Structure formats: structure tokens, C-alpha cells
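Write out C-alpha cells for ABC transporter ATP-binding protein.
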Amino acid sequence: MTGLLSVRDLRVGFGAHPEDNEVVHGVSFDLGPGETLAIVGESGSGKSVTAMAINRLVDFGGGRITGGQIEFAAGDGSVSDLARAEENMLETIRGREIGMIFQEPMTSLNPVLTVGTQIEEVFRLQHGMTRADARIAAREALERVRIPDAARRLTYAPHQLSGGMLQRVMIAIALAGNPRLLIADEPTTALDVTIQAQILGLLAELKRDTDTGMIFITHDIGLVAGFADRVMVMQEGRVVEQGPLDRVLDAPEHPYTRHLLEAVPHFSDGKSARRDGARGGGARTALDVEGLSVRFPVRSGLLKRHSGNVHAVEGVSFDLMRGETLGIVGESGSGKSTTARAILGLETPARGRIETGDAGEAGRPVQMVFQNPNASLNPRLTVEQILAEPYIAVGRRIDADARARMAGLLERVELPQGSLARYPHEFSGGQRQRLCIARALMLNPSVLVLDEAVSALDVSVQARVLDLLVDLQKEFHLAYLFVTHDMAVVERIAHRIAVVFAGQIVEIGPTAEVLANPRHSYTRQLIAAVPSLERRHSAFSVDTSAIPSLVRPVGWEPAPVPWAEAGADHRFRAEG
């Protein structure tokens, strides 16, 4: 063996009889020092189980390696078969030789301990450092992953840091043992596009500096286009294709690889934006928002006095026509979801006007589709009971007409007619999101608010749901308020786009115009961070600038910021 890792005919099963319940079937690959292998596939393809088997973490989740070899070259030159290693040996490998970064940092960090305590623990256990030396090493580790004001951040609890900061903390912990191999399991899936670019840029930088081998697991083949050296595509527990990045992307041989590539939203700087807009002669207004502001009180001191306000949304104005989609884009904390919640009446505006163009079938013109269908559907209710909820909420009877509407909507969202008696757990993730869409349409709304409605889905499932939304919009003449951080998705579905930064719209206009000719610096920053197949040889940015604080003293009011015109219906806020 001349490389870092050699996996041969790996097989993994679960349950009391793992040989009969095999989920990974004969996986083989090699990895050299300083090389990045991307393992790509949809949910259930076996990519995470394969990665967890390498350092035998799969053993703690009911899994067992039933066959194959995992040869790993340690720092001292020794080569071991981790598939047959004893637990005491694995304990010396995990963390020291093989580091792991998980998808969701909040579930990986202890919520009651400070970030500093958790990083220090790694240095004390793995390097035998004193508490004082471990504290210095922890600060240096945070500085290494570009966290500003590292000494102060060490005193923070996890909930006091943003998602991007938390993921950097997880990278710092994973790198604390100076591992020869780093396994990153969907490390950027839950992050905004700019934070995602920072994390990928940071990982690429660290790989160059340390010659660390890396396995990067993702369901988005477009994400690794500018990052990986080699790609391995998995489907149903098997490797269907692997090879150098450019060969797999430019000349895919397996139909499943071609399927994944076709499903990736291709960002094209506005060239593929929708041009079937509803603006113009006779278009009716579905939603009109004027000067919307939402503020949350900040209380401090022993008496919890009102000391300030979080200006989550400030002076937001836009209109939305029937049959039109307005994409609202921005990072976490920018105010885009709070804007959506205020429109739905889930937050009380401090000021502003929200008017709907018509009252819908039952006085409910605006309905919502949330990000996570698992959390949106009551697992104890059947599909029929779930679809009946909107009718019951407005005091309507479940009669023959209501059941006919249920059946018609299930057919329209391409769910089988026998679905009414089934429960949510009996459907796939994409089918559950279709069910959420059907429920939102039960009251015949004029506006659908879609809050990150496809971000939790695999790319091929995401593509089918987006196609469904376009078809439904044309059929029912729906207006969509599409909240997302994914610029490639918003290019594909939105007629117009509003860019939100620090609680304010900083640029708004036709999607093609805004993406092709961005005028505000924040819009340009978002566009530059979008990973795509077309930008595979572009380096990711490691800019660590943060969104300014939205906390203001009581009585503070923002100074008016002038708007500048950039073309027909394209405006942006003046800077400087």
C-alpha cells in the first residue's frame, strides 16, 4: 500500500443478522495524502454509512462490517486493517489519525459547555496538555479556522454562535489532533451560500497546508465541482462510477451520474431565469407590502428592563402579482423568514402595511410551505386528516366536496389515490413535501409562501418539486413568495428577486437583471459564492466579515437610505 487509505469490497449490514440486511455492497476506493475524494449520492445511497465504517463509528449505530478491508496508513508508518481492529486500537485512531466533521454542529457540541472547554478537552486528552497550554492551543485553533476575536469566542456557549461559526468550531476540533484523514459528512448542507463558500475555501486551504487526505460526502454534485480531485458516485449501496473530477463531470458513463448532473440547478448569472412573468397588462396584485418593520425587545439587567430592540426587518416594501414568483434571498439572520412570518400573521409588525389582493376561497389568501416536511406533518394523523386540517381551522365541514378536493389535489401533486389512509412516515421526503403543498392548496389561496421549501431535499427530488411548483402556478395562477439562500434555485423558479441584508431589501428587480447586473456589493458577494459545475476551477472565498448587529437602543430609527435606479423595475440601495 502506497497511499493513505485503501478500501476493498467493503460490506456493511444492520440488525441482528447484518449479512441479510446489507446496505453497503462491495465498495472499493483509494485515497492518497492531500487528495480529496467526493462521495456523491442521494439519501439512502450508503455514502454516510461507508464513511462511518472507515473509523468504525457505524458500530455504535447498530451496523456491522460483514466483509472487506479498510487499510489505513498511520503517521508512524504502520498499516492496519480497521475493519478487523480492536476497539482499544480504534480509540487511538479516532480523532488523532482520522478526524470527523458532521452535518449539524448543534447536535455535535455539548450545549451546556463553552466552546473553549470543548476544544481544550481534545488537546488535553489527545496531546496530554495542561489546562493552560490547552487554552492557548484552543485559541490558536480558532484563529486557524478564521474565527475573529478568538479569545472572547472561547467563552461562548454554542447557541451564541451562528451556524457558520459553529461549523468552523467543529473543524477546529476535528483538526486539533492533526489527523492524516478528514471525513466531512455533508458539512455545508445547512449553511448559507456565502458561509458554505467560506467553509469550502477553509477546508481547501487547510488541506494544502497540512497535506491532509479528505473524504467529502454530499448529495450535491455541483458543490464539489471546484473542490474535489476525484468523485465516487453511489446508488443503493453500490459504487456506480468513480474517477477524476473532470472526467466524471464532462463524460459521465453511468445513467445515474447523468441523472444527478441533470438535476443540479445550473447557475448561469441570470441567463436561465424565468421570462414568463405576470407583470404587464391586466395583471392583478396578489400581495402588497409597504414599509414593513418587525422588532423584538431586548431585556437586560436583574429587572429585565427593556434596553433595546432587534430590528429584524426594517422598511421592507414590495408587491407580488398573481402568477408571479418573487424570490427573497439572503443569509441566516438577514430577516427574510421573519418577513414571511409577518405576512402570515405569525409575527406582529411594529409598523407597515400588508394587503392581499383577494380573500381566497375561505378568507385565507396566504398559505405556507415550510422547509422540513417531517416537522410540518403530524405523525399521528393520516393524510386525509392532515388535508382536512385547513378546512376545520376555518370552520368548514368535511363533506363530499372536501374529499373530492383532497383526491384531486393528491392527483395533481402526483401522489397515489390510496394515500389518504396512510401516515407521513410511509412516504419519502419528496412525497412528504408534495403532501405539504397539497395541504397548503386546500383553501385555494392566492399566495403561497415557501420558506426554504426545497433545501432539505436531494437535488433530483428538488428538481421534480420545483417543476411541480411551476406547473401548479400556471394552473392555479398562484403567486409565490419563495424564501431561500440558494441562488441557483431562485434563478430557476423566480421571475423577480429581492436581496435582503441586515433586515432590509438592498436590491430588487427582475431575476435576469439582478443576477446578470448586480449593483449592490452584498448581491455581488452572494453571486460570487455560488458553487456550480461551470465554476469548477474557481477558488472559494474565505471572507469572514459578519452581518452587522441588528440590536439598537430604544427609540432608535434608521436614517432614510436613497434608492438608485438600475433599469426597468430594477432598484438598489445606495452605498457609502
